[in-house]
Specification:
Layout (H helix, E strand, L loop, with lengths): L2 E3 L3 E3 L3 E3 L2 E8 L8 E2 L5 E4 L9 E6 L5 E3 L3 E5 L4 E3 L3 E3 L4 E8 L10 E8 L2 H7 L4 H19 L7 H9 L10 H13 L10 E6 L2 E8 L2 H19 L9 H11 L3 E4 L9 E6 L3 E8 L2 E9 L3 H4 L2
Helix pairs in contact: 1-2, 3-5, 4-5
């Protein structure tokens, strides 16, 4: 059994936009290079040949380098939009049938190919994707997507991607007096200005005044490939929560409680050439990917955050 530990993390000063706070994170862990991820990874995503399956998609690395796909990455199009359930590493030419969750309950038709745009599911959706039972997990994902229908207006196909598109490009009429739309426009404009700092390898996202999750990569380039998608997804949840910034002391306290937390194999999860890793305590849940004694990627959820307690 493989056992890794969370590396020491250092939290910088946060940027605050309404209920969304973004703290840079540095680590002394060794950098891992030579991987493609995000939009740079040449991974083809298709429905199962002959008979598509809601919870499965076929991934193939068509690039020359190993490709890292991160949990909750969106695959858009196909017979319905999906989100990847766990981190995966594919070496050159490797093909794998991946476990996914549908985030569009009202459509079951379309093309065979899926598009990858380095976009991510929100924390409210991700909290359901940690549920072990497949049927319960999918039902809870659909339930959480429906909450955006209630908050923002119904999507024709009960699509998380539809809501993400709306929130990412809010229509603002300066004469309408719609304060919510104006706040959304300001939030989106703010997150688009955020760039990784020198040596930065991760972020802590605060939502509604509390630390929500930490996302950590094995290189600065890995973070750069995924940061905009992470922030875009965080913004949709921030719109549902109080416009309260997360204090730095809370962010550092959450990270400090991680210590050198051990992360073991998540048995039964196919992560391709990597090892699916997981651990849980009363305060946090860690999910990530190990490869050659390195932690390539990890997400640390705050189990006490309201968005996580829904799970």
């Amino acid at each position: 059994m493989n056992v890794l530990t969370m590396p020491a993390l250092h939290v910088g000063n946060g940027a605050h936009m309404g209920g969304l706070s973004v703290f840079p994170i540095w680590t002394d862990a060794p950098t891992v290079s030579g991987l493609d991820t995000g939009s740079k990874a040449h991974v083809q995503v298709d429905e199962r040949e002959g008979s598509p399956v809601v919870g499965e998609l076929v991934l193939k690395n068509q690039g020359a380098k190993p490709a890292l796909l991160v949990a909750d990455e969106l695959f858009e199009g196909g017979w319905q939009h999906r989100a990847l359930n766990n981190d995966i590493l594919l070496v050159a030419g490797q093909q794998l049938v991946a476990s996914v969750s549908c985030v569009e309950a009202g459509r079951w038709h379309g093309a065979t190919a899926q598009a990858r745009r380095s976009r991510r599911a929100s924390m409210m959706v991700r909290s359901a994707q940690t549920i072990p039972d497949e049927d319960d997990r999918q039902g809870q994902v659909w339930q959480r997507v429906s909450r955006y229908d209630t908050a923002f207006g119904a999507s024709p196909t009960a699509s998380y991607v539809d809501h993400l598109n709306r929130r990412s490009d809010p229509e603002v009429n300066g004469d309408s007096g719609d304060d919510f739309q104006l706040q959304q426009a300001e939030l989106i404009a703010g997150i688009r200005k955020i760039r990784p700092l020198l040596g930065q390898r991760g972020v802590l996202i605060g939502l509604g005044g509390q630390p929500a999750f930490v996302e950590l990569f094995a290189s600065t380039s890995g973070l750069r490939r995924h940061l905009s998608g992470l922030l875009e997804a965080a913004a949709i949840d921030a719109a549902l929560l109080p416009a309260e910034s997360t204090p730095g002391r809370r962010a550092r306290r959450f990270v400090g409680r991680l210590g050198l937390a051990p992360i073991g194999d998540e048995l039964g999860t196919d992560a391709g050439a990597g090892h699916a890793m997981a651990s849980r305590s009363g305060n946090h849940e860690i999910r990530g990917l190990g490869w050659e004694n390195h932690l390539l990627h990890a997400t640390v959820f705050n189990r006490r955050h309201p968005m996580m307690e829904l799970a």
